Amino acid sequence: MKRADAERNRNAIVRTARKLFLSEGPQVNLSDIIKRSGLSRITFYRHFSSKSELIHAIFERNLMILRWYAQKLQCDEKGFEKLLSITASMHLYFHELSLYVDDPERKLLNQLISIFRPLADCAKKQNKIRKDFDPENDLVLLIMMISGAIVFSESNEKKRDLKRAYQMLLEGIKNRDQ
């Protein structure tokens, strides 16, 4: 069992890193994170052996947040859509960090799929999404489409382009008047 102060220190490092990565991007160096966390270098390396490991912990934290939202949205008729929107917003801010994540066994992706699965099943039953939607494969496609909107946008247009891509993703591109 981890000591309470060790857990507090680990959380402080992750919170600090998350804030710095959000404001300054992935180029933030570990020295800045350690300094801003108010903890020693030894304490940092007791919890994380590398920047990649720290970023992995940030993605774990993001999944924890998504899990919390998914629980709150269980009975919401637009729960799947809302969770996808939250995920897209997170992706807007953290997509650059994904290049630093080493997850060959796809543990993070599998956790994301398991978070979405109940809401996807509910949305299918309510005819909110296609019956053939498969979270295992199709959720990855949705995230890739959202990523494209972020990666290829000018930095000052990312939020607008993400919103438009998300809208087109949900509503389709067919003319509704025909």
Task: Tell me about this structure.
By secondary structure, this protein is mainly alpha-helical. The chain folds into two domains: 49 residues, Arc Repressor Mutant, subunit A (Orthogonal Bundle); 129 residues. The chain is built from eight helices and no strands. Helix 5 packs antiparallel against helix 6. The N and C termini lie far apart (62 Å). The model has no long low-confidence stretch (mean pLDDT 89).
Keywords for this entry:
178 residues; mainly alpha; Arc Repressor Mutant, subunit A; 2 domains; 0% strand; globular
Question: How is the secondary structure organized here?
Answer:
Layout: H1 4-24, H2 30-37, H3 41-47, H4 51-72, H5 79-94, H6 107-125, H7 135-151, H8 158-171
